[in-house]
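FIELD: query
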Amino acid sequence: MNQSLLQPQAGSKCADRSGLAWFCEAFWRIETDLSLLTRSVGSVHYWPLLRLEALNKLLERVRLYAPLRGANAGLAAKLSRHFMDAAADAPRLLLERFGKLDGIYLPNRVGGGRDHFDFPLHGVGLDRDPGIERLLILYRTSTHNRSFPATRHVARRLTSFVDAGTVIGHATAGRFLGPMIEEHRRINARFRSELGMDFPFDARHMARTVAIFSAQRRLMAGLLTRAQAPRLFVEVGYCMAPWIAAAKDAGMEVCEIQHGLITRYHLGYSYPGRPVVPYAPDRLLLFGPYWEKAAELPGNTRASVIGSSYLDNYKAAGITKTARLAVVISQGVIGPALFDAVATIAGRAPEWQFCFRAHPGESTAAYAEMLSQRSEQPANMTVSPPSEDFSTLLRRAEVQIGVFSTGLFEGMGFGTRTILLPLPGIEYMDEVLDRGEAVLARDASEIPALLETAPTCRDPAKYYSAPVPSITAALSRA
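FIELD: result
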């Protein structure tokens, strides 16, 4: 990497035709002018299912974002696995009787060495809530099975429903293709005139997305209707549209638990003007008051601060900083650029140790190989293994370096000083920079001095406030 790669990116403070902010503004204009949030094919509102992924694909196309570096099986292998998993246990789940339930919880997959606190996520204690006597926990991978501490709750693997819906969706996509061709024509024409490029998905992909959603929704509605719980708790709601739709079909209130960043430029949450958004959760439960105004949420979603015991869980074990240790927090879409930048920075600051931490969606092995193959491999840079507890690493570090990540806010809570690099997505951190809780490195030559002077966060409680005694009681009062 040369120094020019750390020149500021276009963003909310210097908008032009190349930055994340500009693409977001264009998306909002297009979806408003074409009324995309109200358009449907086969009674399915397709735009919320495509919106965020479409933006990311366009950003990859113009090389602002990099493709995720995680493992990715081929379509044939995926469908084979889907069919086998679905045949194995979908019928049993559809017929099972669970008894009286106070809620159903779909945890997000959490990896990266967070096994101590991966249930519940970020210290949000559904399993210990006094208003929940019995919770049905539907988990997507075996990684959750070792983390359920309360025996009165029921845990079942739900992969079968996702898998069965995927198989059915691929088989039935053709019936949605005709009307989707016309929808695609309208959208593509506008993207060409507004952005000078095609919409990243063709009509077949759009029809397949609608078919999979429709099949999964029907299967999930059958399960949720039989379960008869008053609330569904989800994480990463923008990836859970079939479950949210199915829960509303079953008359349940849907509550999304915050899992990460919420910003104006995160299209999973940001809907300027607050329109009603199909398949949005009824409630968004937040870690702290800062997040309430971080983005304009859907008009049919209400935000409530429930707090989190996450930081306190780790602080109770004590915080001991390791002198001159800098942890680098990756984010999949900018990971390779961040890695290259920090490899150069490490050479400029040989008295510091730099530990690169891959995002859970990335391949740690790929970064370890990149480091080993560098012609000038810095002796003071390592790649953190997935088995290393991430939050313990943050507690030890004097400095954290990144672009945008929930991990940066966690590190601020542990008193870790923060340096940000002006790579794509830095717009997410505008307010943090405005408050002086992090410093932006304008070029590589600034980094050695900033390692000594980068600021700490004065008030991390606005990001992670004290947890409410009972989530269900707080929901009833609000």
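FIELD: remark
The CA atoms of residues 113 and 388 lie 5 Å apart.
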